[in-house]
């Protein structure tokens, strides 16, 4: 069993913007500290065998300028790699291209802070409809998988992950994650009522529960 409230509280979430050559982009950032040294966390995030144990099966060439593909999800190209501290890649899904960067930082007692930043051009209508939770809830589930992997050493299969997502506990997790992303959106300047409405729609999309 997963301590949903503990995991939700263990993650830091930020929302912001950045100006790129193609215009302003939205930025969501998630981070969590894990009880493992930097080298171990790096290997868990860059080894195809270990990525499949906590996230999704991945194929391709996991090195600088190589192309990767996550099973049933995004693919892209590794654009920068600075082991064991950071890597950056494109995130290509549904015809859209965005960018991710993972950064690892030493923490006291041999622990490591994992931080992931996702930068995307999102039109105002889609952002208003779903807000940062549209991608944020998914990344929360990724950090949950990594926490479980380091906490128990057990692998997560796509089948068990799908069963958990459809469970009462899975729906509770996604609902709380969506609410926390609404709070991060408000902290970034979004109107609270608008942020909560977007969170309700995001929760409905992830859980299959009609929005209020």
From TrEMBL:
Family: Belongs to the AHA1 family.
Region Disordered, annotated ranges: 189-212
Top-rank taxon: Bacteria
Compositionally biased intervals (Low complexity): 195-205
Pfam families linked: AHSA1 (PF08327)
Protein's name in the database: Polyketide cyclase
Organism listed in the record: Micromonospora echinofusca
SUPFAM superfamilies: Bet v1-like
Gene3D superfamilies referenced in this protein's UniProt entry, alphabetically: 3.30.530.20
InterPro entries: ASHA1/2-like_C, START-like_dom_sf
Residue ranges of domain Activator of Hsp90 ATPase homologue 1/2-like C-terminal in the record: 35-150
């Amino acid at each position: 069993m997963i301590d949903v409230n503990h995991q939700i509280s263990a993650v830091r979430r930020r929302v912001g913007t950045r100006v790129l050559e193609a215009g302003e982009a939205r930025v969501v950032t998630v981070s969590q500290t894990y009880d493992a040294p930097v080298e171990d966390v790096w290997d868990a995030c860059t080894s195809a065998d270990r990525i499949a144990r906590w996230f999704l099966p991945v194929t391709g060439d996991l090195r600088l300028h190589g192309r990767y593909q996550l099973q049933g999800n995004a693919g892209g190209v590794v654009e920068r790699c600075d082991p064991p501290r950071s890597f950056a890649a494109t995130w290509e899904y549904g015809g859209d291209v965005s960018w991710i960067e993972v950064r690892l930082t030493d923490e006291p007692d041999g622990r490591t802070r994992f931080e992931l930043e996702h930068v995307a051009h999102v039109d105002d209508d889609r952002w208003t409809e779903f807000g940062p939770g549209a991608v944020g809830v998914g990344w929360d589930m990724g950090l949950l998988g990594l926490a479980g992997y380091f906490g128990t050493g057990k692998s997560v299969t796509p089948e068990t992950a799908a069963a958990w997502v459809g469970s009462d506990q899975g729906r509770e997790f996604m609902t709380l994650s969506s609410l926390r992303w609404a709070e991060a959106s408000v902290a970034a300047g979004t109107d609270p009522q608008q942020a909560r409405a977007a969170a309700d729609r995001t929760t409905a999309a992830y859980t299959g529960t009609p929005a209020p």
